[in-house]
Design goal:
Layout (H helix, E strand, L loop, with lengths): L1 E2 L1 H9 L4 E5 L3 H5 L7 E2 L6 H8 L6 E5 L4 H12 L5 E4 L14
């Protein structure tokens, strides 16, 4: 499910089971992240699937990438794997107006 930045933030702040997931490459991740994000690179193929399957399906995942395309795909994959709540940040980190911190 795609969310605007405003909806993504307001939902995230009220969510006690939230996990922020960055699906960019390690180099992109090292350039700066949304605070508390964990990194699982969607370009890892089966490695990405394996790492996603190890996550707690009872949590709610707030997913982003550079522009929103890869994170949208990641949310689709997560839904197929049985995750009920995966939220894509529309526009990705390029459209992010909040703080970006070093990982």
């Amino acid at each position: 499910m795609d969310l605007t930045q405003q909806d993504w933030i307001s939902q995230l702040e009220a969510d006690e089971k939230a996990v922020i997931l960055d699906v960019r490459t390690e180099d992109e991740f090292n350039d700066g992240i949304i605070e508390n994000a964990i990194n699982i690179d969607i370009h890892k193929g089966q490695g990405f699937i394996s790492e996603i399957e190890a996550l707690d399906k009872d949590k709610n995942y707030y997913v982003y990438c550079r522009s929103g395309a890869r994170s949208g795909k990641a949310c689709e994959v997560m839904n197929e794997l049985g995750f009920k709540n995966a939220y894509n940040l529309s526009g990705g980190i390029l459209a992010w107006n909040g703080d970006v911190v070093a990982p």
